[in-house]
Amino acid sequence: TDVSTNQTEARRASAMSDEVAIQIVGMHKWYGQFHVLKDIDLTVARGERIVICGPSGSGKSTLIRCINRLEEHQRGKIIVDQTELTNDIKKVDEIRREVGMVFQHFNLFPHLTVLENCTLAPIWVRKTPKAKAEELAMQYLERVRIPEQANKFPGQLSGGQQQRVAIARSLCMNPRIMLFDEPTSALDPEMIKEVLDVMISLAEEGMTMLCVTHEMGFAKTVADRIIFMDGGEIIEQAPPETFFDNPKSERTRLFLSQIL
Ligand code: ADP
Ligand code: MG
C-alpha cells in the first residue's frame, strides 16, 4: 500500500470508531525514591490530538516515554491498542511498532544517510524488502518536503530538516500513534513552522497524537484536548477554548501567564 492509501485507511478507521487508543489508569512512577508521576488517569481516543504542557520537570517527558516503555511504571495500568504494557518483551515490541516517537534532539543515526535512517527499521524490524522500504521512505520524505536530501547525512542538514527526517522515519513504520516530545524546542525560530506544518498535516489526516509542546498557537488550532501537568500530576485537562479562556486551576493560570 502506498502513503495515500494508508492515510485514507487511517481516516476511515478513526471516523468509524470511537475506539480507545491509549488508556492509563491509576499510574504511578518513581525514579528511585522520587515519585515522578502520581496517579495518572488518561484515556486517548483513536484519532484524538492531545497537547501536554506544564513547567519544566513536571513529568511530561516521563509520561509519554512510559507509553512506549522507554520508562517503566510501577503502579497502575497502561494499555496501548488493547495491549497492556508489562515486562512481556514481546508485547513491548508489538507496541513500539505501533507507536512512533519524535524527540527534541532528533536522535537520527549520524553515520547513516537520510534514506538509510528511514529504511533501517522497516528492513530489520518489519522485514520489508529493501527496494520497497526505499520506495516508501521516498514517499514520506516527499511528504515532509525533503526528498532531495535523501542521500545526505544528518549532519549536513539544518535542524528543521533533521526533525522532518525524524518524523518521516517514524512514519515509515506506519504507526497508529505518534508521540512528540518538544519537537521544536531545539530549533531556530525560522525552522519551527516547517516542523509544525508537518505535524498539522498529520493531525488533519487523523493520526492519534500526543504532543508535549509549548507552541500554544499549535495547541489552539490542532489539539482536541490540552493537558496541564505540574509536580507529576495532571492538574487540568480541557479543550483549547476552555483551557485558554477559562482555566480552572490557579497553577494553570500562573503557567499561562508566564508563557503567553
Ligand atoms: P518534563 O519533561 O516535564 O520537563 P521530566 O519527565 O523530564 O519532566 O522529569 C520529571 C522529573 O523527573 C524531573 O524532576 C527530573 O529531574 C526527574 N527525572 C527525569 N528523568 C530522570 C531519571 N532518569 N532519573 C531520575 N530522575 C529523573
Ligand atoms: Mg521534557
TrEMBL record:
Pfam families hit by this protein: ABC_tran
The keyword rRNA-binding is assigned to this record: no
Molecular-function annotations in GO: ABC-type amino acid transporter activity; ATP binding; ATP hydrolysis activity
Alphabetized UniProt keyword annotations: ATP-binding, Nucleotide-binding, Transport
Location of the ABC transporter domain: 22-256
SMART domains: AAA
Family of the protein in this entry: Belongs to the ABC transporter superfamily.
Name the UniProt record assigns to this protein: Glutamine transport ATP-binding protein GlnQ
Source organism (scientific name): Oceanibacterium hippocampi
Gene: glnQ_2
